[in-house]
Model the fold of this input.
Amino acid sequence: MIRFLFLCLVTTLSPAVGSTILHTVDPQLYRDEAVVLRAQKLGEADRIITMLSRCHGKVRAVARGVRRTTSKFGARLEPFSHVDLQFATGRTLDLITQAVTLHPYSEPLAHDYERYTTGQVMIETADRLVTEEGEPALQQFQLLVGGLQALTAGTSDGVRPATMVMDAYLLRAIALAGYAPTLGDCARCGAAGPHEAFSPQLGGMVCRRCRPPGSAHPAPETVTYLGALLAGDWASTREIAPPTLRQGSGLVAAFIGWHLDHGLRSLSHVDRPLIAE
Done:
């Protein structure tokens, strides 16, 4: 872990040539790449930028003067942007002194309402799941970058509906946080599956003996579809019927809503069912 953090502090990826460049170690400066999650106004011209970074996990830093029209990198620090940054250590919050765009995900999303709203769900989820600032969360960072790439440019097996990409991201992100849904054996007693009922509060598919009142009863093909999303098996999602997509989306929404204390505010803007029948 110490070696990993040291390498993150002294190396960066050059966006121009894709090569590793060594930088002189300055205790007051450090570099990292990050995805911008949100921004809030500070004073008359500044912003506090909240990011999920490769090496330092969640980071909150001040970007001075970015609300002025003359700002050199204000547009590079919009939500969804994947950027290479230089920080200067501050007393309370660090300062962003340089910003280079790696992937301008905010540009294509700004012109597609459906993908914009699903992208908002993804960055809100990352913000909620990575709670400690300064603690490395490399897998969550890589998953978010991969999710935004799939949302804007297509998956490794081609373009997929925005809600499908979002549901795959949500399932895998919540699994990384330790709450992976159980889709085979009973989530409560471990009885061998397949089973007919799905209970978000119990952690996934449950047997007849364990199922609580109000449990959903998804079709077998929906459970298989959710397993493909959880595994990142895009090839198995090429021909998904709309009813399966809708039912799976409802189950994901219910599962995420249960395991995140207050749910996701941005999810209400996505055209999808809240629960599957």
